[in-house]
Structure formats: structure tokens, C-alpha cells
């Protein structure tokens, strides 16, 4: 190193120091992404939050209008928070609860696994608008499900499956379940099948093996799946508009914000969006802090 | 854990398992008295793990019966068999502490809490992990984890303990320590144990009795000394250290391998009938020297290829007459390419009738670490 001269030596030491701190030339690969985030995410978020404080009567007026139901059509915003929470929580609980057994069954070697997964994933590729319009036809008062049920005499009145919370929930489950399933498959197949055998040899019956070994190991994965399902369901409004009834029972927060924007009420629209974000963050914070109490280590029983 | 004699007597009758058209285990017969330590020994794919999984109830037998203390268990699910198992990859429950892992089987058996705590404490003492009771498996070393797994198995005082290559994932010195520990534990508790391994030294040092398997079929059953000193066939011989095998013809007291003729004798009744035979020699019995002393035995000229220092001596590989690969030992070093003479006493050459269909492959016997069978 003495042959490389003082300046070369200096350069080398500078590079060494940088490398030791994890700064390598590959760091430059982050730049496009970071730039994109700043221009298209960080700045708009700050702008929107700023906008929500520029109401017509003082900095908090947009929020006061929002919570006092003084928005377009005098719609209840506190009620919208509850509706949205209810829908998103219900949809994500149902999604996780349905996804876990399917994913658990699909761990390990299953015949035609790829084909099955492909079939399960189809709803995800259709998109909410398509699914919601299809459901409207299929589950509506004159849709063939109700007609069939009426035909065989199982019901006397068409089931109210669209135009209400049930319809939106069904649509959210239909589109969200494949996503939850896909996440859970990763978690269930990450659990060492030897643990189930070990528990069996220790004397645990199948139900005990699931609840005492598999379930605790799946909980962290279920938490994450729940959180992502929740976020997805919270912001979706095509289904609330198409299958639900966004004038009343399924007037979700994103619809409120959208209506305000379309009337040019930017501060109140931004305030609605900020409220949405805060509610979501609060739920995620609660769930994730509960997660801290769970096992977060590896899901295999050793090396090998 | 209350002393000697809590193991059960195991009886295996005509146990057979097929996977499609492949027979993984054919007709295993074994009678294990209470408290005996039996090792199933064989190379990868010999059926030893299949046998163990059949005993554990993790696989169903195609035909055959297993009884423990006279009770048929072969159709029971694993949780009803009253057995315990130690796995190659430990299979500890990662979300439970060491103490909870050990207590798991007791919990499943409905053991009351105070007794449970007491038995877990004694099991922890047994494997010297009292201080680690509240740690999680991931915070322990491999050897410690396997000791927890052993404690988890013995704490329930099972009628039968199954061990599936428990030392294969450990490094060499740890393996030696834990091996001794398993032996000591068995002497202390006298639990009936079936131990599966592909490592002959492990099997020889641990077991009261060995079952050597190959391609699903039993090759030999006997004490370690019987198997080591009087292997039943060329395969078993290859597996217990007879690395050199020479095909040839036996006539009278002379074995003719074409380019090489050996005087044989000593083993007497074990010698097969004259005809096609295989001569097998342990490397330790084939001594490489530069100047053979007169009348010291069979002399085989050898071209040295590889010489390895092994502490107490040298292991040398070379080609004998006709290019035959030979492994021998010496107390001094040789250079590659050097010509020397390997000497073997006539009574150290073991002869077996040559199988008509297959040639023995003793090199399969080299223990390959961490390879499941």
C-alpha cells in the first residue's frame, strides 16, 4: 500500500471507511426509488395535510366541519368512520380466518398445488370494479342466486345481498381472500413439518398440535396478513359504491373524501383523507403492539 | 426416570413398507427385551428411517405388526403409542422455553402441575441444562438443543425411545461428548431405545445390539463385537471398516485375485466354499513398509498415491497389482509415486462368497455427515 502514494492511500482509506459503514456503490441503486417517493408521495402527503388546515374559518375549520357533519349532503362523517372501520375489520378478520385453514391445508406437497393456487388467485386479477359489477348482477334481487333460492322455495323474499353492508363485505372478501391466502401460504409452509410430528410423538392429538404448536407459530404471520388486508379493505370504494349503497349504509370514508373533492372542497376532502390515515395507523399500531407480545423467532425447531 | 427398568419390550414381526412399487423395508423381524439399546445401521436409503417412522406411527406399515409389552401398536396414531422420539434436526418448539418444551409431553399426558415442575427439573438436571430452563431454543447451541430434545423424550418415561440420527447435525467433538452422554443416560435409565444411524462408530459404541440394513433388508443382527469381528457378508464387512475388497477365486488356502495371490487362513469355519469369493481387509491390517521382514505375511507391492497424516500414523492409498486401489496404514510417511510393500497376515484376510448379482461397494460405508437416509 505504501507504493500507491499518499493520495491513493487516502482514497483507499476513505472507501474502506465507507464500506465498513455499509455504504457501497450499490447504494446508488436506491436513488431513483427514493426520488420517486419524495416527488410522488412525501410531497403530496405533506401538501394534503397542509391543505386540510386551510379551511374557510380558521385552521381547524375543515376538521370541525368534518366531525359536525357539515359536508356535502350533510352526511355523517363520524358514522362514515364507523362504517369503514366495521367493513375493513370484518373483511380482514374473515379473510384471515378463511385463509389460514386453506393455506394450512396447502402446505407441503399437495397434488395439483400450482393449479389450485392459480384458481384461487383469479379473483385477485379481476379487480374490484369487475367483481363488484358481477356481484351486483349475480347477488341482486333478480340475480340468479335469489331466483334459484326462490325457485326451490328456500326463501320467500329475495335476500338483500346487495345495496348494503353485506354486499360490500362479500365483495371485499372475494377480492381480498386470495391476497390473504397468498401471504399465509408463505407463513404456513415456513413452519417445519417436523414440529407437528414431534408434537404427535409427545402425545398431542391433532387439535392440540394445531392450537399449541402451529397456531402460535402462525400468529405473527396472521397479524401481518390482517394488517395488510385491513389497509387494502379500508381504502377501497368501488365495491362500496357499486355493490353497496354509498348514499347511506356503506358511505365509506374514501367516498366522503371523493365527494368533497368533486365539489371542489379541498380542505374538507383533505381532512377526510387525514382522518382515514389516522384511523388506519391507530388500528395498525394497536395490532402491531399486541404482536410484540407474541413469539417472533424462527418457525423451525433447529438447524437442518 | 425413577430408576431402572421402565422401558418396554418391543416386538417387530414381518414389518414391511412399500412406497408404490419400491420396497423401503422388507420383513423386519426384531425382538427387543425391555431396556435394550438397539441401533439400526445402514447407508442412506437402506430403510432405517422408514423403520423408525413405522415405530413412531408417522408412517403406516404395508404389512406386519409392532407390539410393545404385548400390546399391538402398529395401527395406533403416534400420540397413543406411549413413545418418545429425538429428531435429527432437534424439532424443538421454537415458541416455548426449554422448560416448556420438556414439559410438553407431560402436559399432554395430563400430569398435574407440581409433579410436572418436579419432573422437568429432574430432566433438566439429567442433561445439565438447569441454568438454561427459561431460554428459548434459538438461544442455545446445537448440542444444548439436542440435549433439550433428549430431556423432552425421557421426561415422560416412555416405554420406547426412538432416536433418528440425533448426532448428525453436530460438529465432531460435540458429537463425541453427546454420544457418551446418551450412553450414560441409557445406563442410568434403562429405557428401551431404537437408534438410527449411518455412522458405524456411533452404532458400535452406543448399542447393545446392531441391526445392519441394506436396501430395506436385514443383513446382520448381533452385538457390536459380533458385527465388527464377524461380519455376515461382504456388505456388512465393508460397512464396519473393511475398506479393501478384492474379487477373486478361493482354492484351498489360497485366494487368487488374478494379479495377486494371497495366502489365507485363521478364521476357519467362516471361510466360504472354494469358488468365486471376495477377500476383504481392514486398512489397519494392511501395513505398508519399505523393506518387508521375512515371513511376515502376504506381501503386496503398492504404488503410493496419497499419504495422509493422521496423528498416530499415516493412512495411505495406492494402487496394487493390476491397478487395484488399496487403503493401508503405516507408522511412517511415504511420498506419492513411491513403491512400497503392503503386508497382511493370512488370518487378517476375511473371505466371503461372491454375490452373483452385485459387487460390494464398501466406499458407501464412509460416514457422510448430515445425510439423511
Which tags fit this structure?
heterodimer, A: 304 residues, mainly alpha, MetI-like fold, 71% helix, flat, disordered N terminus, B: 373 residues, alpha+beta, Rossmann fold, OB fold (Dihydrolipoamide Acetyltransferase, E2P), 2 domains, six-stranded mixed β-sheet, 20 strands, disordered C terminus, ABC transporter permease subunit (chain A)
Fold and architecture overview:
The complex is a heterodimer of chains A (304) and B (373). Chain A has 13 helices and no strands. With 304 residues, chain A is mainly alpha-helical. Chain A has a single domain, classed as Orthogonal Bundle (MetI-like fold). In chain A, helix 4 runs parallel beside helix 8, helix 8 packs across helix 10 (206-235) and helix 10 packs antiparallel against helix 13. Chain A starts with a helix and ends in a 13-residue tail after the last helix. Chain B has 373 residues and is of the alpha+beta class. Chain B has two domains: 10-229, Rossmann fold; 243-361, Nucleic acid-binding proteins (OB fold (Dihydrolipoamide Acetyltransferase, E2P), Beta Barrel). Chain B has eight helices and 20 strands. Chain B has helices at residues 48-56, 98-108, 113-126, 142-154, 172-189, 200-206, 224-229, 234-239, and strands at 10-19, 22-32, 37-41, 63-68, 71-72, 83-86, 160-164, 193-197, 209-214, 217-222, 244-251, 254-256, 261-263, 275-281, 287-289, 298-309, 314-319, 325-330, 339-344, 350-353. In chain B, strands 6-7-8-3-9-10 form a six-stranded mixed β-sheet, sandwiched between helices. In chain B, helix 2 (98-108) packs across helix 3 and helix 2 packs parallel to helix 4. Chain A binds chain B through residues 192, 194-195, 197-205, 208, 212-213, 216-217, 295, 297-304, and chain B through 56-58, 77-79, 81-85, 87-95, 104-105, 108-109, 136-138, 142, 145, 152, 156, 162, 169, 370. Chain A: Pfam families: BPD_transp_1.
Note the overall shape of chain A.
flat
CATH architecture designation of the largest domain in chain B: 3-Layer(aba) Sandwich
- Could you give the distance between the termini of chain B? 31 Å
Distance between the termini of chain A: 43 Å
Question: What is the molecular shape of chain B?
Answer: elongated
Give me the count of strands of chain A.
0
- The CATH architecture of chain A comes to Orthogonal Bundle
Pair with the most extensive interface?
A-B, 26 and 34 residues
Which oligomeric state applies? Answer: heterodimer
Under CATH at level 1, the class of the largest domain in chain B stands as Alpha Beta
- Give the biggest sheet of chain B: 6 strands, mixed
Low-confidence stretches of chain B: 359-373
SS-derived structural category of chain A: mainly alpha
The CATH superfamily label of the largest domain in chain B reads P-loop containing nucleotide triphosphate hydrolases
Rg of chain B, Å, rounded: 24 Å
